[in-house]
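Dear colleagues,

As part of the handover before I leave the project, I'm documenting each prediction I ran so the next person doesn't have to rerun anything. This entry is a single chain, and its sequence is reproduced below.
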Amino acid sequence: MVTSLGMVSQPSATYAKTKGFIWLKTKDYSKNPPIYMANTPGRSVVMWNWNHTKKLHNLRNYPYTKWRVMKSIKMYNPKKTWGNKTGIYYKLVNGSKFGYVHRNFVNKVKTHNSGNSSSSQKIPNVSSVVAEQNKTILSLFPGTIYLPNKIIYPENTESYKVSTTTIYPSNASLTLFDQVLNHEMTYKDYILSVLKERNINPLNYKGKGINVSSYDPYVKYSDGSQEDFSEGYYMGGEFVISISPLAYWH
């Protein structure tokens, strides 16, 4: 509960009867909002309303959309029965679309001045390293149709769930990526090891649409874990492969 002085009291037992999440503390960035985007394009991340009682959008449908962070909110989940019941959530806004997501699912898009009033934004899939990684992944799925500028829609239907495949490495698989960096394993063999762990046969998807995204292992991406958005980390080994019938790509 927030007092008239702006201080925040500890969550009480009465919160257990409250529907949705409770706001404990907010910080406004609307005057100069930082730009963020999904840190794992293609992964399902629900964008909620203000108290997490209604699903508004899903970041999976906006893999490279840039969102303005208008505010950060420390929220309390009274229904959670394990782990930390509080977390930091961002209000993401792009035009008429908005929603609240946990900060762990988005990364800051770094900007740099180009010598005048304009600026360009660094998107995590533009480096030559990433281009080669994506090319390697695509080569393992012969007969698929590469659709880099489209998204899968609609979602959350039974036919969608049955026919759409999303592939990304487990935490165990990510530990193998050090061997790639040390030139003890090729990137292709690394991807094959992930597919094997996931019981994925890449020859079974001929005729379907595919999109892939990966990260440059030598670039540090901001995760916004500090309130001044200065923190960052490396995401080498992370990738997402999305495969679905052509009818679902728009």
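Confidence is low (pLDDT under 50) at residues 1-14, 112-126, 223-231. The chain has two domains: 13-112, 124-248.

All the best with the project,
I.
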